[in-house]
Amino acid sequence: MSDVVLSGAIRSNLLSLQNTASLLETTNERLATGLKVNSAIDDPTAFFTARNLNTRAADLTNLLDSMDQAVQTLRTADEGIEALTKLIETAKATANQALDTPINASFAEGPRDAVTDQTLNLTAVFSSIASTDQITIAFDGGTAVAITVGGKTVSKFISSINGLSGISASITSNGSFRIEADDGSDLVIASGVGSVATDLGINGTFDNGQNRTQFEGDFNGLRTQIDELALDASYQGINLLSGDDLTVNFNESQTSQLTIQGVSLNSAGLGVTAVSADDFTNDATIRSFIAELDGAISTLRAQASTFGANLGVVEIRQGFTDNMVNTLETGAAKLTLADTNEEGANLLALQTRQSLGTTALSIAAQAEQNVLQLF
After folding, report:
1. Full residue range of the structural domain in which residue 201 is found
2. Is residue 200 domain-shared with residue 233, that is, in the same domain?
3. Tens-digit pLDDT profile for residues 296-312
4. Across the strands, what pairs with 259?
5. Who wins on pLDDT, 177 or 367?
6. CATH code assigned at 181
7. 151 assigned to some structural domain
8. CB-based contacts of 340, cutoff 8 Å, min separation 6
9. What is the pLDDT of residue 1?
């Protein structure tokens, strides 16, 4: 089929309408997408520059997420230090309470006027006691120790008992036989052989003293809680209180970063030692434990200050990166976003032009229709 021959006027108006339609299509696309640069064809320089800016903004946004997690890790460590400080202060209060609690020896005392002459053999003073008889003495839940009468005088028998650690024996001014557990713990006296303890009137368990054993157990219990809390102060597998390090990256190439050194803040790391049996019977020993606790509090405060400084750095960089992302996205938008007001005006003008072009095409066609009137 041969091409249709158009007159010059019609062809000119047709080309004008085609150009107007193309411009309308472009304007409608810009209004629909909000972008004046939708592909590299529109403006290669602006398109690829904006894409690079948006890519970097996306990378920095991912870094913002990791910075936020780092902030939470530091806050977890700070909360752990605050809780550890309270436990240390509670342990210190326990030690001070022990220091303020006097020790009163528990004791067993026989009948009055039982002994009038300490130079006599014990078997002579108490006819029911034989030289092979034994008395057993135990205190504070320890193993009982046996003392054999063995023909000893009263004074030597007293000396043999006094030779035991933590035990004191004497004949009172009233002539009664008395044995004491110096630390105030429960005193258990029995007859190992024979009935010597009964004969002396001191057989049985005596809990009439006052001691600090309970405070020792409370102190060690708090020390265990310190260890457990330090282990629990973990966030997403990182525990700054158990020696884990935390590295925070501040740029997409990982050339700018902050490494936060973890520390061991369990009882050993804080220098808080366990209380052994009878440690609290000595005031000087208790004061040494209090000094350790004071040192632990100082360590916690110093570490809290260090973590606080690190947290400040991370938050400052977090704010800077957030602003940088906004700047990059704004720069990309300036290169690619369309001005909707301008594009709206363009659309109105093109619609008017299209209407006028259609009218002009109709007028141009009428010139050829006039030829038909000749027939």
Report:
1. 106-206
2. no
3. 999 999 999 999 999 99
4. 247
5. 177
6. 2.60.40
7. yes
8. 31, 34
9. 41
